[in-house]
Amino acid sequence: MTGAAVTTANPPVRRLADWSADRLREFADEHGTPLYVVDIERVRENAARLRESFPDAAIDYAVKANARTPVLAAIAEVGFGAECASAGEVVRACEAGFADVRYTAVNPPARDLDRVVECADEHEITITVGALDTLDALAERDWSGEIYVRVNPGVGAGHHEKVRTGADPKFGIPIDRAAAAVRDADERGFAVEGLHAHAGSGILETEDLAAHRALVERMSDLADEIAAANIDLDTVSVGGGFGVPYRDTEAPLDVDTLARATREAFSADARLGIEPGRYLVADAGVLLAEVTTVKPTPETTVVGVDAGMTTLARPALYDAFHEIRSLVATVEGRETVAATVAGPVCESGDVLGRDRELPAPERGDFLAVGNAGAYGYEMASTYNSRPRPAIVALDGDGGELCVRRETIADLGRLER
Ligand SMILES: Cc1ncc(COP(=O)(O)O)c(C=O)c1O
Ligand SMILES: N[C@@H](CCCC[NH3+])C(=O)O
Question: Can you point out the beta strands (E) in 223-309?
Answer without folding.
Answer: 235-237, 271-274, 285-296, 301-305
